[in-house]
Amino acid sequence: MTSIDAVLQLSMLIFLCCLVNQYRGIKTFTLGNIFTIISYIISFSRTFQLSATLVTAGLFLLLGSSISCIGIAQFTDKKIKLHYFLILHLLFIGIQSCFVIFKDVFLFKTITQSAFQIVVFALSIYYLLSNSHKSFVGAARFMASVIFVLILLLIARIVILIGNPPDNLFAHADINSASLLVIFISKFLMTSGFIMMVCQRLYHDLHRSANTDVLTHLLNRRAMMHQLEIAMNQFYRSDRLFAIILIDVDFFKRVNDVYGHGGGDTVLIHLAQILQTKMRKADLASRWGGEEFLILLPDTMLDQAHELAERLRSYVETNPTPSNIQITISLGIAVIRQHGNSLESLITAADHALYAAKNNGRNLVAIANQR
Fold first, then answer.
1. What residues contact 140, with CB distance under 8 A and at least 6 apart?
2. What is the residue-wise DSSP string for 304-356?
3. Fewer Cβ atoms within 10 A, N terminus or C terminus of the chain?
4. Which is the catalytic residue, given 229, 291, 307, 310?
5. Distance between CA 123 and CA 8 in Å, rounded?
6. C-alpha to C-alpha distance for 47 and 57, rounded to whole angstroms
7. Contact in structure between 30 and 13 (CB atoms under 8 Å)
8. b/e string for 118-132 if b means 16 or more Cβ within 10 A?
9. Tens digit of pLDDT for each residue in 250-266?
10. Cβ-count burial of 1 within 10 angstroms (0-12 exposed, 13-18 middle, 19+ buried)?
11. Could you tell me the domains of the chain?
12. How far is it, in rounded angstroms, from Cα 121 to Cα 248?
């Protein structure tokens, strides 16, 4: 039953590899499951002498767990020191060989197997809980919890084996039956947890792609419109004021003509980075279209918006791009209720203010006309 379950899980992972191939670690984790299945087949086939069967199956089981651990590390973008895993497996082979040659006792081999498994599982927990990805933190914690419970069960197994050891793996004993049940459940939950991590990361990346500008990594126009609608709803419900700043790069066509489109892209990226670092935490910036950017400033009055706009204008003027392309920006400010009571009227007011700044000489901040 355990082997059938492992094969079904492997089938799901192979299907996952075919569907999602942009992330490192999925194929490695799947390879680890293949080695685990091989260990089950060797264990129950009894092709070799019993001692050789247990040692070989144990080695493949440890290899499977280690390769799966490496797959988790790759998926979470952790650095892996493979020579540590090599030393671990050489040590395992050496100890197991000594038990076979000098004292072939099932208890010693099983305790050693469990101890080495615990080390690999502990590494897996470390990789899962220390990853910097926030997109699949829930699934990672679930998988780490499953592995932690498995470690506790392995420790309990060692204690029970010392107190009442069976003759061999195939002896009809409660501890052997319980061990197979634990393997069955834990492998299913671990595979489910890994698939959950992949799905959560895929959803997060797709959501980010749909709402983020590819070049600047700011919100795109669609995502900003959604945020503006939220701000409008809050204004209607609780009279929460907000302001918007519409920004345009001055003489952007000249930048493209002189430095090429690569230079134009550099300017847009540079400006986006300035917006991200110089805004307040609550503010949201977006690429509105072409060389235009729009900033949403929640809970902001006109004088606060004007102060921020002037700070941005001055900083851009005095800080050229890393490739020394000097630019300036023009900015138009509009505040809800003061310059419009609807989203359309507010954006139009900010747009008119922006054009006024450009018509008055550029590199200026302009405020929308009162309604």
1. 76, 128, 129, 131, 133, 193, 197
2. HHHHHHHHHHHHHHH---TT-----EEEEEEETTTS-SSHHHHHHHHHHHHHH
3. N
4. 291
5. 26
6. 11
7. yes
8. bbbbebbbbbbeebe
9. 999 999 999 999 999 99
10. exposed
11. 2-210 (1.20.1070), 221-367 (3.30.70.270)
12. 54
Which residue intervals of 130-172 are DSSP H helices?
137-163
pTM across the whole model: 0.75
Q: Which residue has the tokens 């590899």?
A: 17
Bigger pLDDT: 295 vs 17: 295
Extract the tokens encoding 184: 């069955």
Question: By C-alpha distance, which of 253, 346, 258, 248 is closest to 297?
Answer: 346
Mean of the pLDDT values across residues 205-223?
92
Alpha-carbon gap, residue 80 to 83, rounded angstroms: 9
Tokens 């007011």 correspond to 349
pLDDT for position 353? 96
In 3D space, the residue among 270, 285, 280, 271 whose CA is nearest the CA of residue 218 turns out to be 285
Between CA 13 and CA 8 the distance in angstroms is 9
Query: How confident is the model over 53-86, as pLDDT tens digits?
Result: 777 888 888 999 999 999 999 999 998 888 889 9
pLDDT, position 100: 66
Cα gap 24→201, rounded to integer Å:
12
Residue 242's H or E segment, with its range, is strand 242-249
Say how far apart CA 116 and CA 151 lie, in whole Å. 11
291: annotated active-site residue: yes
What pLDDT is attached to residue 7?
A: 74
